[in-house]
Amino acid sequence: MSKKKRDQISTRVVIADDHAGVREGIRRLLESSPDLLVVGEAKDGIEALELAEELNPDVLLLDVEMPRLDGRQVATKLKERESQVKILVLSSYNNSQYISSMLSNGVAGYLTKDEAPAILVKAVLSVANGEKGWFSQEIASKISGWHPKTNEN
After folding, report:
1. Which of 45, 56, 84, 88 has a CA 20 to 30 Å removed from the CA of 129?
2. Is 13 helix (H, G, I), strand (E, B) or coil?
3. pLDDT of residue 17
């Protein structure tokens, strides 16, 4: 990437997923947008936490199931540390318990990995700009009754 393009990037992203091929595909997709730059990749939760704190990205694209610390633990620790990084979950799991746990830790959205690529790019850009509520349709149907204060579905 040229210096000129790097200087024009408005949104910095860290990708956290335990599968190298998934990270590579997401990186290529995100960097196809002129407004996004992947500044780090984490293969487990500890690396995700370290990179989020060290690099201070605009968005942490976070998987739920990862080694060492899972996505829920990463989100909890970032919330406890009052991190300003915005979290967008990208996971294969659509379990209501996972979703509720992530939402109670202040994630900006929860997308499944089968989401359309254009939606993922739009969600990352929107989350970076402070928008919340980015959910895959399948996820949205599971959280319609979720209440953030009681954590009930």
Report:
1. 45
2. strand
3. 97
pLDDT digits (tens, 9 = 90+) for 47-106: 999 999 999 999 999 999 999 999 999 999 999 999 999 999 999 888 888 888 888 888
Query: Exposed/middle/buried for 76, CB within 10 Å: 0-12, 13-18, 19+?
Result: middle
Q: Does an H or E element contain 21, and which?
A: helix 20-31
Instruction: Calculate the alpha carbon distances from 4 to 8, 44, 106 in Å.
Output: 7, 32, 34
The residue ranges of every structural domain in the chain are: 3-142
Longest dimension (CA), the chain: 48
In what side-by-side order are the strands of the sheet with 59-62? 36-42, 11-16, 59-62, 86-91, 109-112, 134-135
Q: What are the E-state strand segments in the chain?
A: 11-16, 36-42, 59-62, 86-91, 109-112, 134-135
pTM: 0.85
User: Which of 3.40.50.2300, 1.10.760.10, 3.10.50.40, 3.40.50.2020 is the CATH number of 3-142?
Assistant: 3.40.50.2300
CB atoms near residue 20 (< 10 Å): 10
Tokens of 39: 């500044």
